[in-house]
Design brief:
By secondary structure, this protein is an alpha/beta fold. It has eight helices and ten strands. The chain has an eight-stranded parallel beta barrel, surrounded by six helices. Strand 4, helix 3 and strand 5 form a beta-alpha-beta unit. Helix 1 packs parallel to helix 2 and helix 1 crosses helix 8. The radius of gyration is 16 Å and the shape is globular. The relative contact order is 0.15.
Length: 238
C-alpha cells in the first residue's frame, strides 16, 4: 500500500502533517532549493514534535554543497538524502556520493535521488542513479524534479518509464518514493504503479511549496492515498 510523505520546514508544520495523516515526515527548507537542508535546530525541533510517531527523513541539499547529518541525530532520523545536481560531468561523482553516504550515522538509511529533469539539473541520468544506488549503500530511492517551476513529474518522465523505474526499484529491494509537484490528479495516476510513498510539499500548502502547510490539504491528500484501491478512482477533493 502506498503511503504519504509530507515535507515540512519546522516543528509547527510537522504537527500539522501528523494531524493531517502523513505517514512519513521529511524535513527540508524549500527556500534553499528542491532538497534544501534545514538547520540542526530545526531538525531537532521536528524530531521532538514527531516523537517517533512516524518515520523522519532529512534533506541534505545537493552533494556539492557538502552538508552532513549531525551525529546527534543518529537513531532519531530514519532517512537522509543528497541531491546529485551538478554532478553529470564529474567523473568521480559516484565516489564522492559514496563518501557522503558513509559519513551518515549507521542508523540512517541513505536515499538515492534521481532527478527526472536531470538535464536541467546537470545530474546523472535517473537510470544511472538507480543502477548504482544499492552498491553505494542506499536503501531507498526518490525520483523527483529539480526545477520546481517546470511542471510536475509527468512532464519529464512518461507513465510507462515511471512504471519501469518503480518496478526496477522494487527488484533492487529499494524503498521507492515518487515526488515532483504532485497534485491530486498526478497522485491518482501514480497510485496504480504502487510506489512505497508519494511525496508532496506544494499540494499540502496554501501558497505553494514556499507557503504554509495546511491541515485540510494534508488530510485530503492522505485520504486520497489511503483510500485508493485497484480499479477505483477516488473523487478529487483537493
Amino acid at each position: 500500500m502506498t503511503k504519504l510523505l509530507v515535507s515540512v520546514r519546522n516543528a509547527t508544520e510537522a504537527r500539522i502533517a501528523l494531524v493531517g495523516g502523513a505517514d512519513l515526515i521529511d524535513v527540508k527548507e524549500p527556500d534553499r532549493g528542491p532538497l534544501g537542508a534545514a538547520d540542526l535546530a530545526t531538525i531537532d525541533s521536528v524530531v521532538a514534535q514527531v516523537a517517533g510517531r512516524v518515520p523522519l527523513s532529512a534533506a541534505l541539499g545537493e552533494l556539492e554543497a557538502g552538508h552532513r547529518l549531525d551525529p546527534s541525530l543518529a537513531g532519531r532520523v530514519g532517512y537522509a538524502k543528497f541531491g546529485l545536481a551538478g554532478c553529470l560531468l564529474a567523473s568521480d561523482w559516484t565516489l564522492r556520493w559514496q563518501a557522503a553516504i558513509r559519513s551518515l550515522p549507521r542508523q540512517v538509511t541513505p536515499v538515492a535521488v534521481a532527478y527526472a529533469d536531470w538535464q536541467a539539473a546537470r545530474a546523472p541520468d535517473p537510470w544511472d542513479v538507480l543502477s548504482r544506488a544499492r552498491s553505494v549503500g542506499c536503501g531507498a530511492v526518490l525520483i523527483d524534479t529539480f526545477d520546481k517551476t517546470a511542471g510536475p513529474l509527468g512532464r519529464h518522465i512518461s507513465p510507462a518509464a515511471l512504471a519501469r523505474f518503480i518496478a526496477a526499484a522494487r527488484r533492487a529491494r529499494l524503498v521507492c518514493v515518487v515526488a515532483g509537484r504532485l497534485g491530486c490528479q498526478e497522485i491518482e495516476e501514480i497510485l496504480p504503479l504502487a510506489p512505497d510513498y508519494v511525496g508532496v510539499r506544494g499540494a499540502a500548502c496554501t501558497g505553494g511549496r514556499a507557503g504554509r502547510l495546511d491541515v485540510k490539504c494534508v488530510r485530503r491528500l492522505a485520504d486520497l492515498v489511503h483510500s485508493w484501491v485497484p480499479n477505483y478512482v477516488a473523487a478529487r477533493s483537493c
